[in-house]
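[Q] Does anyone have a clean structure-token version of this?
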Amino acid sequence: MHFFWKPYKSDVTNFIEQMRAGRPALEEEQRAGRALLWDRPLDRQALAEWRASRVAQKPYVYYEAEAR
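[A] Here you go.
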């Protein structure tokens, strides 16, 4: 057992820590970017209509193409 053991930090961890220290508003910018594309309210009625309008796919979709 080593008495002077130093915990290991990967290069990626060091890079992320340096990036966060250099740009303190980074997390806020990331959350704002996520809100643009992903964090949107769902239209439950439109989603239910879309699910109801789906047509079930037949099993072995490519079977008919091979038989011809």
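[Q] Thanks! Anything notable?
[A] The two ends are 70 Å apart (CA to CA).
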